[in-house]
Write a structure and sequence with these properties.
By secondary structure, the chain is an all-alpha fold. It has a domain of 63 residues. 65% of the residues lie in helices and 0% in strands. It has five helices and no strands.
Amino acid sequence: MAPTRGGSSGRLEKEKRFMGKAKGLKDKLYGAAVVKMSFRLRGDEESTAFRVVYPGVLRDLEIDDAAVEKYIEENREAVERAARGSTPPPGVR
């Protein structure tokens, strides 16, 4: 890569290489649903850990709890299986 003035372009290119693929809405909902269900299955939705972690997940993924609950309702079996530590077969999400 050719040097650039100020180095900002080179730094930007480096950052782009290390960034992961953008997640689609379905993947975001699945991830948040698994986090929420893992707490729910242990009866820990009122815990400090849940009250700290889960809102951060929603914020970082830019989704809301109502959408996560709807996803759980529509995909309960796969979400519960993942929250218990079993990976769903490809395409189930």
